[in-house]
Amino acid sequence: MKTLDMSMSVTFLGAAQNVTGSSYAVDVDDTTVLVDCGLYQERALRDRNWAAFPVSPARIKAVLLTHAHLDHCGLLPKLVREGFRGKVYCTPATAEIVRIVLLDSAKIQEEDALNKAKRHAREGRRGPYPDLPLYTIRDAEAVLPFLTPVAYGTPVPVASGIKASFFEAGHILGAAMIKLDLGAAPAASRSEEHTSELQSRQYLVC
Fold first, then answer.
1. What pLDDT is recorded for position 114?
2. CA distances from 160 to 60, 96, 98, 183 (A)
3. Distance between CA atoms of 33 and 28, rounded to whole angstroms?
4. What sign for the dihedral angle of Cα 188, 189, 190, 195?
5. pLDDT tens track for 182-206
6. Three-state SS across 78-114?
7. Which residues, in sequence order, are bridge partners of residue 35?
8. Which burial class, exposed, middle or buried, applies to 75 when counting CB atoms under 10 A from its CB (0-12, 13-18, 19+)?
9. What pLDDT score was predicted for residue 200?
10. Which residue, 63, 102, 158, 172, has fewest beta-carbon neighbours within 10 Å?
11. What is the pTM of this model?
12. Closest by CA position to 102, among listed 135, 66, 53, 63
């Protein structure tokens, strides 16, 4: 998608032709924002959790979370461990639930890795991946300082040329639809405001 002075694309990185692993990248010119960063939970697709991120974590300017289910936030510890240093924007309730969900997920990852190592040793075999957790409790704790609560209906600049507004969505406590205002620029004058917005702004609802 392209306007007079801006290019925009959306790339689906997960939850496409399947249910879990929700994540997609919104690129505006050379700026990348990630919407959700979810864990794959289907048994046949869990190998994807170990794969490299399609977008370099260090290149991502911000993450926007729609809600706190694990298939929408569960790969954040891996994203931060591999170089993401932007903010994770979400509603206040989502921020509180994400803390619980990620720490619990990390504890399970550690316990599963330990049990798998014991089982493999007993059976004299090795699995396709090392007997290590996908991420640890320490990895999950490293995400917490990046959580940035945003009130419903309040536009927030999240990256160059991108503002996000969160709107109540139901589903679970804190869940939100997210409207992205892309390429927003101040109008030259009040008389030119409508024309300027048509030429330089696009809206994307996530």
1. 93
2. 12, 27, 26, 8
3. 8
4. negative
5. 875 433 333 344 434 444 566 666 6
6. HHHHCCCCCEEEECHHHHHHHHHHHHHHHHHHHHHHH
7. 24, 64
8. buried
9. 52
10. 172
11. 0.86
12. 135
